[in-house]
Design a protein that fits this description.
2 domains; single chain; 9-stranded mixed β-sheet; Rossmann fold; about 375 residues; alpha/beta; globular; about 30% helix
Length: about 375
């Protein structure tokens, strides 16, 4: 069995600093200037740790340097290395070239760490000619080709290596136009399909748009949240149309795809990154209001990486307010909300049952799973 691994070293670099993506050299340089750190090698490392017990059952084929080799050796593997050493920031063509070489090298499964942009590059290079599974490591992770968590990616790959008969499903590769996304307009495009090995509850669904007709319910949720606001407390609103209804009712602006901070009806910060959030909550209590990603159920770790593990630990689980339209809850068909913050210990703390505001003075109790 030959397993390929490609890590996009700059995937997700724009998330915690509030850039909503990592596409393009200018964005990557801006993220680094804002103090962003690369995290994709850490995410891939969790997958490699999960695979380590079965390392003698397969050959790991990986791209040179930061695109896979470094992480593989750090986690005790002796990989077969392809391509030249990568130095500094890598390009989409580097990813495509590595994938093509692995396809020519007759791999049985290709793992990649990145986001939707990386999934597009993998699709361009290999199409449906080899099974592919994404390790979620980007900012935009809306495609249906990713495991729910890096650990889940390792578990699926281990089952594949053991020869279990996993369903191969043609799953959508979708991506957003980042420039429009940063401007608050969501333009989604289907780029194609990848053959993804499916293990129950381990692969995420594609993101589904929020229903646009539930304005009355959104306003009712907003009224409930505003009624519970306390003097002297900050309110951190995550991205989305459901949270935007709260700002609309307050009469203040809201960044549709960003994280904003308010004190009552006063705007404290718009489109805040992790550093700004930590500065604001250093000496003032805060509540975080988030809504699950439609179709996927993620409350943290998808599109709101600014609300980092450090921010969540400082605010505390008891000060997280979950809100959701009933249509979103019903669409999950009993599947839990998911957290993938990048901190396994914190994800465990967040797991369990939490109240979800679904209307004015209306709540349901819903399960959160790490």
């Amino acid at each position: 069995m030959r397993i390929g691994l490609i890590i996009n070293p700059i995937a997700g670099i724009g998330g915690r600093v509030g850039l909503k993506g990592s596409d393009g050299l200018e964005t990557q340089q801006k993220a680094l200037a804002l103090g962003a750190q690369t995290l994709s090698h850490l995410r891939a490392g969790v997958t490699l740790e999960t695979l380590f017990p079965v390392k003698n059952l397969f050959e790991l084929v990986t791209a040179a340097g930061l695109m896979g080799e470094t992480a593989a050796r750090q986690h005790g593997f002796k990989p077969t290395v392809i391509g030249p050493q990568s130095s500094g920031l890598t390009s989409a063509e580097d990813t495509r070239q590595a994938a093509r070489e692995m396809l020519d090298d007759s791999i049985d499964l290709l793992l990649f760490a990145g986001g939707d942009g990386t999934a597009r590059d993998i699709f361009t290079a290999v199409g449906t000619r080899v099974p592919v599974l994404g390790i979620p490591a980007g900012v935009k992770i809306h495609s249906a080709v990713f495991a729910t968590h890096p650990r889940a990616a390792g578990e699926i790959a281990a089952s594949f290596i053991h020869g279990k008969r996993l369903e191969l499903r043609e799953s959508e590769v979708i991506d957003l136009d980042e420039e429009s996304y940063r401007a608050g307009t969501i333009i989604t495009k289907l780029y194609g399909f990848l053959n993804v090995p499916i293990l129950s509850h381990k692969v995420q669904n594609k993101k589904a748009p929020s229903p646009g007709r539930e304005f009355a319910q959104m306003d009712a949720i907003a009224a409930d949240v505003i009624e519970s606001m306390q003097p002297g407390w900050l309110t951190i609103l995550g991205p989305g149309t459901t949270t935007r209804a709260i700002a609309d009712r307050l009469g203040v602006p809201k960044t549709l795809v960003g994280v904003d901070v308010y004190e009552g009806e006063r705007v404290i910060a718009l489109d805040a990154g992790e550093a700004k959030l930590l500065d604001l909550i250093a000496d003032q209590p805060a509540k975080i209001v988030v809504s699950p990603v439609g179709g996927q159920g993620f409350i943290f770790g998808r599109g709101n990486q600014q609300i980092s593990p450090n921010v969540l630990r400082k605010v505390g689980r008891e000060n997280i307010i979950l809100i959701s339209l009933m249509e979103k809850l019903n669409a999950l068909a009993g599947e839990p909300f998911l957290v993938d913050s990048g901190d396994a210990g914190l994800d465990g703390i967040l797991a369990g049952y939490m109240p979800v505001i679904s209307g004015y003075h209306e709540k349901v109790i819903y399960r959160v799973s790490a």
